[in-house]
Amino acid sequence: MPLDVQVSFRHLQTSESLDALIRSRAAELEQFSDRILGCRVMIEASTKRHRHGNTYHVRVELSVAGGTIVADHDPGLDHSHEDPQVAIRDAFDAARRRLQDHMRRLDGQIKTHDASSIGRIVRVFAERDYCFLATEDEMEVYVHRNAVPGKAFGKLKVGDRVRYVIDPEEGDNGPQASTVVLV
To answer: Which domains are delineated in the chain?
Structure first.
């Protein structure tokens, strides 16, 4: 039975192409779980005027057995979210990760991490929301802004010592940290 998907648009014209993209991305989530009961997606154009253009905010709510999963990301000054397709992609990627974690918990698979280790920041790409840290054995680990709690990502600089935990699932950029905290 196809997934029930409800799509709403705020502060922008309804778009058949965006609607089709959202429905396609929602259908992809079904491969991760057959327990999805429904999906509500809201795409909203920022009403504030920005120097470069509007940004788009996408909220994905999945009704699943055992609760509701919400992927709701405020793009802030992320200029990549001036493209609604990028905002949709990012929101559904976050929803997929949360759905996978939820399913692991329901199935009794607890996500375990190795004990944290100490490393140092070796490269920072603040405008792209990521950096790299070096482990004690000089392996480089990718760090996304979301792995750094609060607003501490903006304070990271080359040479800073950090405590980190490596995510057991390797990302597109190789080993990635799931949690990074300044020491």
So the answer is: 5-106 (3.30.160.100), 117-182 (2.40.50.140)
